[in-house]
């Protein structure tokens, strides 16, 4: 994440209850990028590529067809983040496409690695970002760097997709959880192997809304309708106390909550999801900006992320809303960032 987009986040000022409106939003950080640590590796590393539809790629039947058409994209939510460029709400047209019902799981990503020998960027860099609560006491003895102003994010040597919480962690019991610690570049390589692609931001948001126009969340306007948790987000005092009343402190299995109206699971919370688009907070606000299958601006240092994660909290990062958005540099990987795939209809 570029320095201009990072900002310093403060902890929650009070214990926000489920469904509560945010009291204040004091920062703009969702997950650190590699440039957020002084002296950290910043050069992009291009992983091995395979042709689209490579032999052995898992052509599965778990994709959902979205018929396309026009929808209202974005948000004018008054407590959103102006620097994110959520608004204005605008009518956007999207051609028919397919999108995965779930985020790519650790099991499915392991198939890709086994078939190709691909090395993720976190593995090549030799380190990644881990939320402080998930670092073991033994690994914590070796952790010497944190993100200034957001010290809950720690640089952990030896962390990667197989060891998402550090070198002494594993995927045991988490094969049906979303793969994390994958960069945009890693996600793109997986998609190419699988004969798919990353969704555009417009496709992702249209699919996430589930056919309900301008609802706050994929299921409606209440975060916890009738006391039922519909997503995996942070409850308690961020970043020191997570009550995990939705059932999970970290990632959850990809089908843990009710799907939206189109049959997509966990598009709000759980893990942030990479989109294909280059990031800009203002490109879409131009009067002549594309409204038919928009794909964001040409070039740019960061890529769009959508959906929020298990670390999103109403007091500082309520970006688990449909219209919310943020970005990160394409070489960055964290413990709350994954992806799902799309393809043309």
Folded structure, characterized:
The protein is of the alpha+beta class. The protein has one domain (about 1-40, about 60-345): paralog of FGE (formylglycine-generating enzyme). It is built from 6 helices and 14 strands. It has helices at about 5, 105-115, 120-125, 135-140, 185-195, 200-210; strands at about 65, 70-75, 90-95, 95-100, 125-130, 145, 150-155, 235, 240, 270-280, 305, 325-330, 335-340, 340-345. The protein has a 4-stranded mixed β-sheet with strand order 12-11-10-13. The chain has a 3-stranded antiparallel β-sheet with strand order 1-4-14, covered by helices on one side. It has a 3-stranded antiparallel β-sheet with strand order 5-7-6. The longest helix is centred in the N-terminal third of the chain and has 11 residues, at about 105-115.
Summarize the structure.
Helices cover 12% and strands 16% of the residues.
Task: Outline the secondary-structure elements.
Layout: H1 3-6, E1 63-66, E2 69-73, E3 90-94, E4 97-100, H2 106-116, H3 121-125, E5 127-131, H4 137-140, E6 146-147, E7 150-157, H5 184-193, H6 201-209, E8 236-237, E9 241-242, E10 272-278, E11 303-306, E12 326-328, E13 337-338, E14 342-344
Parallel strand pairs: 10-13
Antiparallel strand pairs: 1-4, 2-3, 4-14, 5-7, 6-7, 8-9, 10-11, 11-12
What percent of the residues sit in helical stretches (DSSP H or I)? 10-25%
Radius of gyration: 18 Å
Do you know the CATH topology?
A: paralog of FGE (formylglycine-generating enzyme)
* Elements, N to C (H/E): HEEEEHHEHEEHHEEEEEEE
- Overall spatial form: globular
CATH superfamily: paralog of FGE (formylglycine-generating enzyme)
Looking at the overall shape, the CATH architecture is: Alpha-Beta Complex
């Amino acid at each position: 994440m570029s320095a201009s987009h990072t900002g310093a986040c403060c902890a929650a000022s009070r214990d926000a209850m489920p469904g509560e409106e945010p009291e204040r939003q004091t920062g703009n950080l969702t997950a650190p990028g590699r440039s957020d640590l002084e002296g950290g590796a910043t050069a992009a590393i291009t992983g091995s590529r395979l042709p689209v539809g490579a032999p052995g790629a898992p052509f599965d039947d778990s994709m959902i067809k979205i018929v396309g058409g026009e929808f209202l994209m974005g948000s004018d939510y008054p407590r959103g983040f102006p620097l994110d460029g959520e608004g204005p709400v605008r009518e956007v047209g999207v051609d028919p496409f397919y999108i995965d019902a779930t985020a790519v799981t650790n099991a499915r990503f392991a198939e890709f690695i086994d078939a190709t020998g691909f090395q993720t960027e976190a593995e090549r860099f030799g380190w990644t970002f881990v939320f402080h609560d998930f670092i073991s006491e033994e690994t914590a003895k070796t952790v010497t760097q944190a993100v200034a102003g957001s010290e809950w994010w720690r640089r952990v040597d030896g962390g990667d997709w197989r060891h998402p919480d550090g070198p002494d962690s594993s995927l045991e019991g988490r094969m049906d959880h979303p793969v994390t610690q994958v960069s945009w570049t890693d996600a793109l390589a997986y998609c190419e192997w699988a004969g798919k692609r990353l969704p555009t931001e417009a496709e992702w948001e249209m699919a996430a809304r589930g056919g309900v126009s301008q609802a706050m969340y994929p299921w409606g306007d209440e975060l916890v309708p009738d006391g039922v948790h519909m997503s995996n987000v942070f409850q308690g005092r961020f970043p020191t106390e997570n009550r995990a009343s939705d059932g999970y402190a970290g990632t959850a299995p990809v089908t843990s909550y009710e799907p939206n109206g189109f049959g997509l699971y966990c598009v709000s919370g759980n893990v942030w999801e990479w989109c294909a688009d280059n990031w800009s907070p203002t490109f879409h606000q131009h009067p002549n900006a594309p409204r038919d299958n928009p794909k964001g601006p040409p070039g740019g240092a960061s890529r769009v992320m959508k959906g929020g994660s298990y670390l999103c909290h109403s007091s500082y990062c309520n970006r688990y809303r449909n219209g919310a958005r943020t970005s990160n540099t394409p070489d960055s990987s964290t413990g709350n960032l994954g992806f799902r795939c799309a393809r043309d209809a």
